Amino acid sequence: MVEWIVTEGLTDYRTAEAWMEARADAIARGEAAECIWLVEHPPLYSAGTSARPEDLTDPDRFPVYPTRRGGQYTYHGPGQRVAYVMLDVGTRGRDVRRFVQALEAWVITTLEAFNVTGVIREGRVGVWVERPEKPRQPDGTIAEDKIAAIGIRLRKWISFHGISINVEPDLSHFDGIVPCGIREHGVTSLVDLGLPVDLPDVDVALRSSFAKVFGDSPVEAPVTEATPVFTT
Question: pLDDT averaged over consecutive 10-residue blocks of the chain (232 residues)?
């Protein structure tokens, strides 16, 4: 069974990283259950292992955190649901590509709960939505905006970091980076798409779709001294 933890308020990024790594190590030692941790961060940019310096276009706007997850630059901030995924990939098939595909399917199934069609594009990390109401791309294709990011790390076959879904963040905050290194497409959110959705709504959808994709029933974690409640 997978523990499901929701932390209210804004969680410091480095504190979150430290907690994730400690939990992942405990899972690897067989001392803790797998865990999904839902958080919200203050405005920040994080740089994955493939981040290019030229993609940080406004380095003084928000704190920048180099991190060892895969991927490039991304933004985290209020109104964005971040789901940190500490799962044992070793017991789930030891297939990293398949695991990432499952994370993508989790996001897409979550978006379906709001009648939003998420898509995956070759060569572009994350989940996208078509925007037919916007001007077409120079090559004539329909405009697409990114609505969710995915970036993980594995250690001893335990995953950490995870996914983020734009619910109602300030989309102008993405202007300080080239999100995931992709310049020709924009970003969007559920509210930007015209949906009256908030974080608790998305949390419900995440729980339901997780069971459908991964076949695990989420369990509410009991409040203990180990429960992360870090806020700023």
Answer: 95 97 97 97 94 92 92 94 97 94 96 97 90 90 94 95 97 88 81 97 97 73 40 30
How many Cα atoms sit within 13 Å of 143 on the Cβ side? 13
What is the model's pLDDT at position 80? Answer: 98
Contacts of residue 76, Cβ cutoff 8 Å, sequence gap at least 6: 13, 41, 43, 44, 45, 46, 82, 164
> For the chain, what's the residue count?
232
Helices (H) and strands (E) in the chain, counts: 3, 12
By CB atoms closer than 10 A (0-12, 13-18, 19+), residue 178 is: middle
Question: Of 216, 92, 211, 225, which Cα lies nearest the Cα of 154?
Answer: 92
Quote the distance between the C-alpha of residue 27 and its chain's center: 21
Tokens representing residue 226 in the block:
């180990």
Least Cα distance to 32 among 214, 215, 228, 163 occurs for 228
Residue positions annotated with a catalytic role: 180
Whole-number pLDDT of residue 178: 84
- pLDDT for the residue 224: 37
Burial class (CB in 10 A: 0-12, 13-18, 19+), 112: middle
Overall pTM surpassing 0.70 (yes/no): yes
Distance CA 199, CA 164 (A): 12
